[in-house]
Amino acid sequence: MRMVGLAAGIAVLALGGIARADIVEASPTGFQVKQTAQIAAPAAKVWAALGEVGQWWNSQHSWSGDAKYLSLELKAGGCWCEANLPGGGAAHHMTVLMVMPTKTAVLDGSLGPLMFSGAAGHLVWQLAEKDGKTTLVQTYYVGGYFPGGLDKLAGPVDGVMTEQLGRLKAYVETGKP
Fold it and tell me: Helical H runs in the chain?
């Protein structure tokens, strides 16, 4: 069963155009996951799409159940936020720490269930354009406390982040995630 899952995962990565997805390091106190995608579009178009997170993020990985309620302000101090949670609530997922438009964005925060632990994270997007195509490297660094150890979450988080990068790539290239 594990081999079937592994083979399916490799096939999804190949079809999605993700060049590489790695768990760079994992320990009970933290992990680093990194994904790289080659996107057939200029960096300015990829950058604009990053800010349209509600268009490409998978709704299954949102608190509201609908990604259209996600927003991301790509400016220092900007919020990756989510509205319309049950009971009229909202969530602040990440804060933008640094932007170098069409080059780099650094966000601070804990995505998903990491929010309910002593874990903190930095999500870094690095873009490099060559010949009208963009290489996007997405790295998520997570450290701190999580019951049972953060190393156990490295694989699932890598899977979710790989999926989201594939969806972003599809959105930029086709207009649909």
Answer: 2-16, 43-50, 53-56, 154-174
